[in-house]
């Protein structure tokens, strides 16, 4: 079998099973594990998968720059944003992450909502300027331009002084076994810090983020109490989350 044929077959197995392991692949194709590991390295370099210990997981497609993602309309993201906005109770202290799905959440907030929003996203903060009854607390730090969020030690220090009622987390990967992940190490630290300071964490997970993984782990799926997904999400995936003790809301 040619290398290109083997790689195509690996991708088909990855799509079917949600993960692949090097040792079984080597046995299936009659090649050494070193050959399979080389295939996986090359495929990871091409952005086709995410390598993990012993094998690989589907790579998240939600890693394009913010400006590109913002131009891609998604009815699914809009529905997730609407469902998330409905979870907010007046008077709460709400943490809102950066990202395009979070932008949809903000877009669906009632104009008369009375609440305090804590965010490390300049985009979210500016979007709330026209909400007269929402107090906005901006977390500062180094601007991570890819996602337009503030990260670093200064951000984590500021977060440590806040007790929030609910945190809406954006991710680039949600996988039943690999957990929650994102494409930047410092961003992962900030997301963990936000989750640690909130009574409830809700992950906003559009279809492109499901059953996929990125390079940096935020935590197990159980770091979230709730995951909001699109209505058409495969029940096998949501059942895996619910089996882990995570509530699933279909938007």
UniProtKB/TrEMBL annotation:
Keywords: DNA-binding, Repressor, Transcription, Transcription regulation. The keyword Repressor applies. Residues 3-58 form the HTH deoR-type domain. Signal peptide: none annotated. InterPro entries: Carb_Metab_HTH_regulators (IPR050313), DeoR-like_C (IPR014036), DeoR_HTH (IPR001034), NagB/RpiA_transferase-like (IPR037171), Tscrpt_reg_HTH_DeoR_CS (IPR018356), WH-like_DNA-bd_sf (IPR036388), WH_DNA-bd_sf (IPR036390). The keyword DNA-binding applies. It comes from the Bacteria. SMART domains: DeoRC, HTH_DEOR. This is HTH-type transcriptional repressor GlcR. It comes from Paraburkholderia metrosideri.
């Amino acid at each position: 079998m040619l290398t290109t044929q083997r790689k195509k077959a690996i991708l088909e197995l990855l799509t079917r099973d949600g993960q692949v392991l090097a040792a079984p692949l080597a046995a299936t194709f009659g090649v050494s594990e070193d050959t399979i590991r080389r295939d996986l390295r090359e495929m990871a370099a091409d952005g086709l998968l995410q390598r993990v210990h012993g094998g690989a997981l589907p790579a998240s497609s939600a890693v394009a720059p913010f400006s590109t993602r913002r131009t891609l309309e998604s009815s699914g993201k809009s529905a997730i944003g609407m469902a998330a906005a409905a979870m907010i109770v007046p008077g709460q202290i709400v943490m809102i992450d950066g990202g395009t799905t979070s932008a949809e959440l903000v877009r669906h907030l009632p104009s008369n909502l009375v609440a305090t929003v804590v965010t490390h996203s300049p985009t979210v903060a500016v979007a709330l300027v026209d909400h007269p009854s929402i107090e906005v607390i901006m977390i500062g730090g180094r601007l991570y331009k890819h996602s337009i969020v503030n990260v670093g030690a200064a951000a984590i220090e500021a977060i440590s002084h806040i007790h929030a009622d609910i945190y809406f987390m954006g991710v680039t990967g949600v996988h039943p076994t690999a957990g929650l992940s994102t494409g930047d190490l410092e961003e992962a630290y900030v997301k963990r810090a936000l989750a640690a300071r909130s009574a409830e964490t809700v992950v906003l997970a559009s279809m492109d983020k499901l059953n996929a993984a990125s390079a940096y782990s935020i935590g197990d799926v159980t770091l979230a109490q709730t995951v909001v997904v699109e209505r058409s999400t495969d029940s096998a995936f949501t059942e895996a989350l619910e089996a882990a003790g995570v509530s699933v809301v279909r938007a």
